[in-house]
Design brief:
The protein is of the alpha/beta class. The protein has a domain at 2-144 and 177-202: NAD(P)-binding Rossmann-like Domain (Rossmann fold). It has 11 helices and 12 strands. The chain has helices spanning 10-21, 37-41, 54-61, 80-98, 120-131, 154-160, 178-191, 210-221, 233-242, 247-261, 281-295, and strands at residues 2-4, 26-30, 45-48, 66-69, 102-108, 137-143, 145-146, 162-165, 173-176, 197-202, 207-208, 227-230. The strands form 3 sheets. A 7-stranded parallel β-sheet has the order 3-2-1-4-5-6-10, sandwiched between helices. Strands 7-9-11 form a 3-stranded mixed β-sheet. Helix 4 (80-98) links the parallel strand 4 and strand 5.
């Protein structure tokens, strides 16, 4: 049995789908059963509850050979770092109570830094918590910026005819498809060949700038003249809050953007064959972003 936290989200769902396709017995966790219907139809066992509830998590982890863990997003929470810590502490208590021995954690590059990185700092704290559990084998997948983050830009493109964020347009940085994260997580959960506290970066096929990606998106949606605009930090903050994010969450995203712009968030080990993943942004734009844009 392999238990998957956040199975209604992008990386959790991708991990569960890969494991089910490989014939593994899978237990999937989410707050609402309807979000797991497709996975249950494929043979997964559903566990419905709250990720801040250590007793629920311990029950869901019980009997599992390995567990996929994460700190789920909660964009409306008034104190997102406190929410991260609440989930992180509940997860660690559940791991201890259920005596799980193998854990894969969705982390982020930049998680070696304790502060100044926005929501990534919560993953620094979670890596430290897990590393302190005696006898636990942990693999932290330090993933790059998700390709799927570009979904948030589609309404802006649709209604204002531009792409934009607080990150510099000409800054090239590592980015990765969540499907590739799911494949690597599934392999690790099956093999359980990591010991102690291990780290693996996941950097996508190549570094990309938002200027270049905007051109790629524009070509995919039939807007070849689409431009990228870097927003001032205060404007970005106001825009995210207008879109429904809490001040806490929006402020953390702005801090993360600053960390990218100032070169704080970056890979530690450099690009190599092991951390380079296959899905190209050009294909993702055509096959995933363009249909989502047309559906708006």
């Amino acid at each position: 049995m392999i238990t998957i936290m956040g199975a209604s989200g992008k990386t959790g769902r991708a991990t569960a789908q890969t494991l089910l396709a490989q014939g593994e017995k899978v237990r999937v966790l989410a707050r609402a059963k309807e979000h797991l219907a497709d996975l249950v139809a494929r043979g997964a066992e559903a566990a419905i509850g709250d990720a801040t509830d250590a007793r629920f998590l311990a029950s869901a982890f019980k009997g599992a050979d390995a567990v996929y863990t994460l700190l789920p997003p909660n964009i409306t929470h008034p104190d997102f770092p406190a929410f991260q810590d609440q989930v992180g502490e509940a997860t660690v208590k559940a791991i201890k109570d259920s005596r799980v021995k193998y854990v894969v954690l969705l982390s982020s590059y930049g998680a070696e830094l304790p502060s100044g990185t926005g929501p990534i700092a919560g993953l620094y704290r979670q890596e430290k918590r897990l590393a302190s559990v005696h006898g636990l084998n942990v693999l932290a997948l330090r993933a790059a910026y998700f390709f799927e983050n570009h979904f948030m830009s589609l309404p802006l493109i649709k209604h204002q005819g531009i792409n934009g964020s607080a990150i510099k347009g000409d800054l090239a940085f590592a980015q990765v498809a969540t499907g590739d994260i799911g494949d690597v997580a599934a392999q690790a959960l099956r093999a359980r060949d990591f010991k102690g506290s291990a780290i693996r970066e996941m950097l996508g096929p190549r570094d990309l700038s938002l200027d270049e990606e905007t051109r790629i998106i524009g070509a995919a949606i039939g807007k070849p003249d689409l431009k990228y605009v870097q927003f001032p930090y205060e404007a970005a903050l106001d825009g995210m809050m207008s879109a429904g994010l809490s001040r806490s969450m929006a402020s953390l995203y702005v801090e993360m953007s600053k960390a990218f712009n100032e070169g704080l968030v970056k890979p530690v080990e450099g690009r190599n064959a092991r951390n380079t993943t296959p899905t190209r942004f050009e294909d993702f734009a055509v096959n995933v972003l363009a249909p989502a844009y047309r559906a708006l």
